[in-house]
Structure formats: structure tokens, C-alpha cells
Write a structure and sequence with these properties.
The complex is a heterodimer of chains A (about 300) and B (about 325).
Chain A (H helix, E strand, L loop, with lengths): L3 H9 L10 H11 L1 H23 L30 H37 L1 H15 L3 H12 L2 H5 L7 H9 L4 H14 L3 H8 L4 H9 L4 H24 L11 H7 L9 H28 L9
Helix pairs in contact in A: 2-14, 3-4, 3-14, 4-5, 4-8, 4-9, 4-12, 4-13, 4-14, 5-9, 6-8, 9-12, 10-11, 12-13, 12-14, 13-14
Chain B lengths: L1 H27 L6 H6 L4 H11 L5 H13 L16 H36 L4 H14 L3 H21 L20 H39 L2 H8 L4 H13 L1 H9 L1 H15 L4 H11 L2 H29 L7
Amino acid sequence: MADTTTTTTAAASGIEIAKPRKQWQVVLRRFFRHKAAIAGLIIFALLVLVAIFGPMLWKYAASDLNLGRYKSPSADHPFGTGQIGDDLFAKVLSGTGFSMQIAIVAALVNTIVGVVLGAIAGYYRGWVDSAVSRLTDLVLMIPTFLIAAVLSRSTFSTAEIASGGGSSNWLQVAIILGFTNWMIVARTVRGMVLSLREKEFVEAAKALGGGPGRVIFKHILPNTMDVVIVNATICVAQAVLLESALSFVGLGVQYPDTSLGLLISENQNELLVHPWLFYFPFIFIVLISLSVNFIGDGLRDAFDPRQKRVRA
Amino acid sequence: MFRYIVRRILITIPLLLVGSFLVFALVQGMGDPLGEWKLQKPRTPDEIALAYERSGYNDPFLERYVNWVGGFVQGDWGTTVIPGSGSKDVQNEVLNGLWVTFRLVIGAEILALLIGMAVGVIGAVRQYSIFDYSATSVAFVLFSMPVFCTGLMLKSAAIPFNNFLESIGMNRWITTAGPPPGGFSGSLGNQITQYIGTFMLPTIALVALQFALYSRFQRASMLDVLGQDYVRTAQAKGLSQGRVVFRHAFRNGLIPVVTVFAVNFGQLVGGAVITETVFNWSGMGKLLIRSIYEKEPYMVLGVVMLTAIGIVISNLIADILYARLDPRIRLG
């Protein structure tokens, strides 16, 4: 934590010292010295820009057909074309958008659910804690992928699956993933809140008349933010992969929406003869999840107060 | 220790019961399993009534749950409910699938653990060496790759390789679509070759998924241990580096990895589901995906509950191992 009192006393005594930095400035400085993290951040930002503006700027739309079947990558079609004469570059642009949307919404839901449940359990202890902890144990008992698969099936009908989809469902997929992967966040936050609630500053906040909501959200949770943010990046990376796996077995995103996982799934049998149909969406999935993992790694190192030197 | 195990199992039973209720509700949420069967072609009212009677979907939700749970505990896991393909016994199908999955997963998991531990230890001992950097990079890329992509790429590499073998007059060695239905045959050497050819690709795909995780954990815990005072003491009294690393540090550096090994079981099952789909193994994962598609309620329940029981058991084993390996931890 930055300490403003030292500056004033130091200034008064006429000794020049380095300008004090706020904690987030220290963290940012450490983060920006982490080369892999910066590379990750730049790639992620580029991917976001590409996903937002790409489809507007590119001459073909993802829905364009009959542009010529199975053309190899060329200047006109940088990623080639597919079986129905669709431009793969346009499809990857829009798939990247959907994959990122889903991952970000899912990670947001993961984080919010996890933080709220964890904070309540850790702050109130007693039966509330027992209830939340048992619920966490329960959901952890079944692999995330299995719950998500069963849940997807309850929301999409077979008719939709058979006809290749009906209505837009990316948000459903995102929310299903959001509610099936919050357990680790909840456990971590609970553990931190359990120890933070005994600290003097929490007692002071309560003594000054702060209610539970204020104490939890204004005083306790800000101290868990480092861990929560790092966990959120992990959730994003996991959600990208989970979504692609769900789409691969046919229980994820459906037409008219698309995603990188769905593109790969549609083109899985083309790998030998028309490899570009597999490799371009694949590279984009790896780029998203790799860049997020690098950002998370950089943040973890930057938040770590024991960290003196950032490794190259 | 014995009392601890008994108590843990006793705590687990209500948890599994509540879990089974949640899963049952989840499967109920999938909707009427016969809904689509009814629409496929005109059915007589008698046919429909009989199908509903057999499926148990005439009973109210709670009664159905109690019937199912009672049967499950006694080994009667129900049958498939959609008429047409004949009714199959769920327990039989699920246990068959489990055997296929288990054979696939256990070898991959042990290999992943061994490779991961070796890479992690070397990475920690030679921190920031070229080996460490390459291992870290490989682990990061593997973390960021969907499992089915690894599988698909392996498959596409195996086909030209098989073609090459054929062109020089040998058999196509690497199987890309599940184990042979009749088992392996021929001489022992032949059988081993067939076995390797069958298991190679799915095993590599699963190892790639898991080993990255283990190597990262092993590296972190090894670095932690290597920085401790007693390791410096061992070095200071003149022990060789090999002895310090393996006799003193490695044993303690092993502890966290053991827990990850057990806790990771869930992720492994998810990975196995996908890998089986890619390589067309008729294991539990493929059974689950097919049953979810067909909306076979008892089949889905059977697979999910068996997985849940497996995860509970692996967590228990992890806790016991943890206490055995680290005498500072007392169970009780």
C-alpha cells in the first residue's frame, strides 16, 4: 500500500525521495515489464478489434455462399473457402467474435457467482458457510463438461440439433458455462474472506457503523481482487476451450451463431485434404486462450508482493 | 486413520444422495424422453401408453426419483426407455463403457504423471535454462489447445503414416477408430504391436492434456522446496546435488502433485469424453454423449453418478495419501 504520510514528513525534512506510487501503479509497472504478458495483452486487444471491426470491413460476409468451393488460401480468400463456397476468413472473424463473447460472459458470471457465494460463506460462517461449501462440493463432484452437456441438451431440442439449429443460442451457452465453473473462485474467496474478516480494519469499519454489505464490498472484497482477477483470466481461457469442446460434440453453439469450435467441428474431416479449413480456426482458438493465459500469468506475478524482479 | 476413513465415507453418503437428487432434477430438465419418439411417426395410443408405463414417466417426479435411487443402490440402474432399439440394461452398458474408458485413461494418466514429474523436476533444478523455457512454452501451448484438436491432428498424421507402411508392404499399424471388436489376436509379439497401435493416439492426446498441468505443479512445488533451509543445509554439508535433489527435496516436492493427481480426475473424465468421440472408442464418454442426444434419462444418470462416485473416491484417496506423505498433517 502506498503511504502518503512518509512523503509529507520526508518533504518537510527536505530529503528527496522517490515519488510514492499507489498499489495499482506498482502492479501496472510490474505487469508492463512482463514481456509475455504484454505480448498476450497486445494479441488479445488485436483479437478483440478484429472480432468487432473485422466483419464490418471485410468484403465477404460469413453468410456468403457460392464463392467457389475448396479454394486454397489466396489474396481474395486469405483463409480459403469451404465446402459450400463460403469464405473462411469471414467465418473465422465472426467465430472469433462469438467465441470471445461467450468466454467473457461466462467468465463474468463465474466470477460474480463465485465471489458473492465465497464472500457470503466466509463472512457469515456458521450454517451459511456450511450450505455454500456443501453446494460447492456437490457441483465439484460432477465434471464441468458433463453438467454443461446435460444442461445444453435441456435447452435445445433435437429438432434444432437435427436441422442444424434454429435461433441464436450463444448467450445460453455462455450462461450455462457461467453457472458450471464458479466453484474454484468461490472456494478461494471464501478462504481469503475467512481470514480478512478477523483483521483490525474490518473491526474498525464495523465499529464505525458499516453494515455487512458495506463491510464486505467496500472493505473486504477489494483485498481479494488480485486473486479474483487472476482467476477470472483462467476462467476466460477455460471457457474458450469448454465452449469449443461442447460445440465439437454438437451440444454448444448452433447455426445461425457460429464459433471457432463449431467451425473446427464442421471441418474436422477436411483436415487431410483441405487442411486450411481446420488450421485457421484452430490457430485463433489457441491465440485467444494463449494470450489470456499469458495475461493471467503476468498479473499473478505483478500482484505478488514478494516478487522483486520480474522474470524476463 | 481407520476411523477417519469411516467418518469420511459416512459424510460422503448424504452428499452423494443430495448430488443424485440434483442430477436427477437436471436430467428431468432435459424433458420428456419420449416426446420426440412420439412425433417420429404416428403411434397408436396403446403403444404410447405402454412406452410411458415402462419408462416410469407416469409416476410423479419424487416417486420416480425414490424408485430410481432405491434401484441404483441395489444394482438395478434401470433400462433404456425409448422403444424401438430394444431395452438395454443401463448397468451393463455403463460398466462395459467404464472398462473401455478405464483402460484408456489409466495408462495415459500414469504416463502423464511420470513425464510431468520428470519435466517439472528438471525445470525446477535447472530454472531459467533453455530446457525450463521450452518446457514452460510447451506447457502453455498445451494448456491453450482444445483436446479434440490434438486428437484430430494426431489422426490426420497417422493416416499418411499408415499409407506409407502399406506402400512398403507392411500392415496399417496405427488404429484411428477404436479397439478391434474381437480383441487382439496372433502371437504375443503381434498382440503387443496391435495393442500399442490401438492405444497410441488416444493415449498421446490425453497425455498432452494432463502432463502440462503436472509439470507446472511439480516445478512450482519443487522450486518451493529447493528454496528451503534444510535443502541449503544438505548442500552445505557437502552432499552431491543429485542426492540433495532426490533424497531430500523430491520427496517433499511430491506432496502437492499427489493431490492434483486425484483432484484432477474430473478434468480427465471430460477429456476422455472428447478423446473417445474423436477416436471412436465406445467408452463411457461416447455412451454419455449419445444418451444425452437420445434423451435416455437412466443412461445419463448412470454415467454421471458413476463419475461422481469415482471423483468422491479419488478425493478420499488424495486426502489419505496426503496425510501419509506429510506427517505434519493429522487426519481426525
